[in-house]
Amino acid sequence: MSSTASPALAASPPVTQAPARHRTALRVWLTAVALMIVAMILVGGATRLTDSGLSITEWQPIVGMVPPLSDADWHEAFEAYKQIPEYTHVNPDMDLEGFKTIYWWEWAHRFLGRMIGFVFFLPFLGFWAAGYIPRELMPRLLGLFFLGGLQGAVGWYMVKSGLVDRVDVSQYRLAAHFGIAVLIFGYTLWLILSLSGKARERLSSSAPATVAGIMLGLVFVQLLLGALVAGLDAGFSFNTFPLMAGQFVPEGLFDLDPWFLNLFENPMTVQFDHRMFAYFLILAATLQAVWLWLTKRPAEVIGSALVLAVATMMQAVIGVWTLLLSVPLPLGLAHQAGAILVFGFAVFHFWLTLKGVPVAERSGSQSRASA
């Protein structure tokens, strides 16, 4: 780094020295995987909103790729569904055509999961054999593959919770399943960013990265709160804003005993927490952007914080709109997509504050940096 470089930044080499064409190929591959993960999360959301998640009552990782092909196969699958509480207590009047509708949603969700496995593993073998994968990247990719397998097992663990004593899946297991999916997406995005191959200059102060890491954690907590809302169908009640049951802080938030169960099992409390945490998240993201601007951090860092703040505001608007209309499917999916987008922005902002800004791209922003 030249002697004229800003004292707020320190030289940092590229994460990997792999040839540019190798990095480009790996980034394209991982981007395809990341997009499929997003698609799977959204199909999973649709499966939840259409109450389709319990339509397939067994887990067959290989044979299950093939849907029912004959009328006899469909009747066999329908008969299996009739044995669970959801059919008995919720859908006793459902006919075969109605069953096919919910079956296809769940089948598509599982099929996407299997396809992600193939799209990851087969190219991985090819890139490995061709020598495209840098040594430092290998354990990270193996870790990503392990997380994918874990996600499949957790998904079935979630489904099993609704097959015996419940008419839906456990909200705890749903939150775990969604949370792991989000983490897999975030980890994949991190790997894509790390393959840029550009020399970067790190901020000499660790404060922006610390704050950005806290923001990322807050966003993740809010996503988990949203999963609890979905798991309890809490979005289908108290469809007013900004009041709930005619009050800003409604009565009944702590009706369950012991009190802490309300945080996870009382639909009113879960929705209230999701609302309040959204306010806090918007405030925190806004204050972060203002702080970075006042302390004259590099323009790229300020810009990514500002994008995150605006994204949290837009996500809140979509959330309110979704709530007021009692969670129609298109808006429910838009809200879930917005959540993934906000998380992606938070990951990028954290990565940028941690790894630094590209050397070649900050010549015009040196005047904004300070020690």
Please outline the helices and strands.
Blueprint: E1 9-12, H1 20-49, H2 71-81, H3 85-89, H4 96-130, H5 138-160, H6 171-194, E2 200-203, H7 207-231, H8 262-265, H9 267-294, H10 299-324, H11 329-355, E3 357-358
Antiparallel strand pairs: 1-2, 2-3
Helix pairs in contact: 1-4, 1-6, 1-11, 4-5, 5-6, 6-7, 6-11, 7-9, 7-11, 9-10, 10-11
How would you explain this protein's 3D organization?
- The chain is mostly helical.
- It has two domains: about 1-15 and about 205-370, no CATH class; about 20-195, no CATH class.
- The protein has eleven helices and three strands.
- A three-stranded antiparallel β-sheet has the order 1-2-3.
- Helix 1 packs antiparallel against helix 4, helix 1 packs antiparallel against helix 11 (about 330-355) and helix 9 (about 265-295) packs antiparallel against helix 10.
- The longest helix is centred in the N-terminal third of the chain and has 35 residues, at about 95-130.
- The protein is flat.
- It starts with 8 loop residues before the first strand and ends in a 13-residue tail after the last strand.
- The relative contact order is 0.13.
- The model is unreliable at about 1-15 and about 360-370 (pLDDT under 50).
